Amino acid sequence: MSFTGKIKKHSGTHLEKVKSIFENGQTRQKIYRHIGKEIERKPV
Question: What are 33's strand-pairing partners?
Answer without folding.
Answer: 17
